[in-house]
Amino acid sequence: MKVLVTGGCGFIGSHMVRQLLADGWQVTNLDNLTYASNPANLASAMDDPGYRFVHGDICDAPLVKELVAGQDLVLNFAAETHVDRSLLGPAAFVRANVEGVVCLLEAIRDDGHAELIQMSTDEVFGSVPDPEESAEDRPFRPSSPYSASKAAAELQVAAYRTTYGLPVTVLRGCNVYGPNQHLEKFIPLFAARSMRREPLPLYGDGLQQREWIHVSDLVHAISMVIRAGSETQRGAIHIGSGERRTNIEIAQRICDLNERPHELITHVKDRAGHDRRYALDSSRLRSLGWAPEVPFEHGLARTVVWYVANSSRDDPAFASYLREQYEVRLAGAANAAK
Ligand SMILES: NC(=O)c1ccc[n+]([C@@H]2O[C@H](COP(=O)([O-])OP(=O)(O)OC[C@H]3O[C@@H](n4cnc5c(N)ncnc54)[C@H](O)[C@@H]3O)[C@@H](O)[C@H]2O)c1
By the 8 A CB rule, do 5 and 75 touch? Predict the structure, then answer.
């Protein structure tokens, strides 16, 4: 069986490519290698005869058409994914996350054979009041340019399903953590900064709540959906762990794991439009027999150890982004404390 994975050099995609190869799939990985990618994530796959890497963009219609032809499955992880960056420049998010998905859908429509699995997010629902959980049919209320672009992609996917009868599935994941994630994201950033005894910029009161799943559990869930076959695949399926934590709890736990004082945690000006809470109802997936295996406490401890050993990316562009995103906020927090 043949699969086109897009965004395979990123965080989730790199874990998924390795799993698919282990399961015997012929994998083509299309990735345009943005700042968030790391080809070294897939160094171990390079010599696998079932693996092929193509450096290219999901918005490149002729290339996508050529690559989709003959595939059984297209698994789309290619996206701009950092919410903070979507506030700085939304256009790149619309291009990759919406236009790119339409380009994939057109190629699949033209090919007439491959199925699509589109990776989406719990963020499409916006903030969910406690104790509610979002079921698959909850209306979208995205708050950020990132989540709006993911919701827009989902609407296109649903339109192609309804209009052209395309075999398409949407998987909505909660927050994912584990090795290979870019250092800009919350857990890698706090793990790396606390290790270096740098202040940890925590947005607002830190009481925003997220649901966290280890990347290995997410990959197993996706593999199970693929195995379950087309009848169960079509429509939307939620992949949540039920492990819900506030950001401040996680920041404190990371300090504890790195044996650093909680005083490193610095409350800074909140992000505009910051959702308070996400929570998925994942009973549909659980009824297929899936359950997460990595308890959050264990997974977080392993992940922090991994970032302590693997966080030395010397990247001037990232340093400049960190200055833009946090320097003024941290200075504001220091002044407020005086
Ligand atoms: N990480 C999470 O917590 C999480 C949670 C829910 C859903 N998701 C979704 O899962 C998917 C993967 O997320 P991730 O965290 O692995 O992202 P990531 O940022 O780590 O990786 C994205 C990859 O896509 C590639 N890419 C970006 N634009 C591209 C384009 N136009 N053409 C080809 N390749 C392109 C990048 O080079 C990178 O390798 C995304 O759709 C994201 O919205 C992520």
Answer: yes
11 Cβ inside 6 Å of ligand 1: yes
**Residue 290 DSSP class:** -
Q: For the chain, first and last CA: distance in Å?
A: 63
Let me know if 50 is exposed, middle or buried by CB neighbors in 10 A (0-12, 13-18, 19+).
middle
Annotation says 327 is catalytic: no
pTM of the model: 0.97
211 noted as active-site residue: no
Per residue in 20-74, pLDDT (tens digit) is: 999 999 999 999 999 999 999 999 999 999 999 999 999 999 999 999 999 999 9
- Phi, psi torsion values for 76, nearest 5 degrees: -100, 105
Domain ranges of the chain: 2-178+212-239
Q: 235-239 and 26-31 as β-strands: parallel, antiparallel, unpaired?
A: unpaired
Residue-wise pLDDT tens digits, 266-312: 999 999 999 999 999 999 999 989 999 999 999 999 999 999 999 87
| Any ligand 1 atom below 6 A from CB of 206 | no
Q: Which of 80, 115, 123, 275 is catalytic?
A: 123
- Architecture of the CATH domain 2-178+212-239: 3-Layer(aba) Sandwich (3.40)
Contact 176, 240 (CB under 8 A): no
The catalytic position among 115, 133, 146, 154 is: 146
Atom of ligand 1 nearest to the CA of 181: 20
Q: How far apart are CA 119 and CA 285, in angstroms?
A: 15
Distance of CA 79 from the midpoint of ligand 1 (Å): 4
122 annotated active-site: yes
Which one of 17, 19, 34 would you pick to mutate in the ligand 1 pocket, going by the greatest count of ligand atoms within 8 A of its CB?
34
Question: For residue 85, what are the CA distances in angstroms to 63, 158, 211, 237, 317?
Answer: 27, 27, 21, 27, 13
**Marked catalytic residue, from 115, 122, 217, 243:** 122
